[in-house]
Amino acid sequence: MSIPVTVLSGFLGSGKTTLLLRLLEETARRGLRPGVLMNELGRLDVDGSILEAHSRASVQKLLDGCVCCSKKGELLGALQTLVEQQPDLILIELTGVANPEEIAETITEPELLGHVRLRQVITVLDAEHVLDYNSIFAADKQLVRTLRRQIEVADLLVLNKTDLAPSAKLGKIESTLRKYNERSRIVRTTHSRLEWDPLFAESEGEPAALRQPEPVAAPSGFRASLLGSLALGRQKPPRSTHDAEASRPGNGPVRSGGRLTDRLPASPQQRSYSRIQTVSLPWNGSARASRAKVEGFLRSREDQLLRAKGYMRFPGDSAVYLMQYAGKRTVWERVRYEGQSYVVLIGIDLDGELLAEQWNRTFD
Ligand SMILES: Nc1nc2c(ncn2[C@@H]2O[C@H](COP(=O)(O)OP(=O)(O)OP(=O)(O)O)[C@@H](O)[C@H]2O)c(=O)[nH]1
User: Which residues cross the membrane (predicted)?
Assistant: First the structure.
């Protein structure tokens, strides 16, 4: 019997790890043994540490790159390792800039065929910001395409962070999502709290989203925009850390919907790609450091900064804090963590050297 694989996709900070933790709680409650594969853009493994603090699941980690490109070679090996452990199910959390199609492609490699099967792709969306992505990333066509594919190939769309968005906006997001994916269920959540039974229900057969749908024409405007219609006009040329593949012939928009594995090309068509970069910085917690100062540092770079996370200690305070900056908000949580303090910054066209210098000047 092949092991069902659930893929969690969605942009940076949308709530994927939150969902993964909830799914792990639920698998434990159902007496199931999960295998987990996590992929992080940064070299330092914040999400993995969060996971280890909350779960005893067997975890494979692919750090410092995206499984869509630089880590693709390692993905197969990591999945094979998980398969050898014979878990009841496998959960894969992708980076925020990954195209879930690439995972499905690996799952159909001969080495894995018959051992694993794609059960569902779940895409998590940040209700507060999803409508802004098109304008923010206007000059990064590959990223816009990747985010659009995350929506199009999803079997379940989780509209998360609904506590941060007015209900009129939620309706607008849902009708926009429908243009890109007219078949899959959309659920509104806060903190990725879902109704779990449908996600685990093998007896119901394939999720509706995985069935081959009627062909659907791409809506007008589909090619030009992801969501929303504003344009800030960032026009810098792309400076990619990933491969640029989307201009290849055959990479035009695919109809929305359809079982992902049925539509995979023989060779990769589209890479996750973007101007998004990751900078990892050590944290010494010098006498001048404070949470307010960290928040100020992040806030003053909010045009470029998409995500930041890390473990931090402060003078005169014995606690360790997990700092999470997502959607221009900073959240602090006291945690048990014994490792070194550090911060990972993820943003558009980040200049690592300059940031490190500014960071040191501010906090050392
Ligand atoms: N207000 C609010 N915050 C949320 C919600 N869901 C998640 N968060 C917070 O948003 C931040 C990012 O959540 P994560 O689950 O780490 O997001 P992610 O998609 O895994 O982030 P990356 O792995 O960096 O791409 C964390 O501080 C969460 O606690 C929500 O529904 N409402």
Answer: none
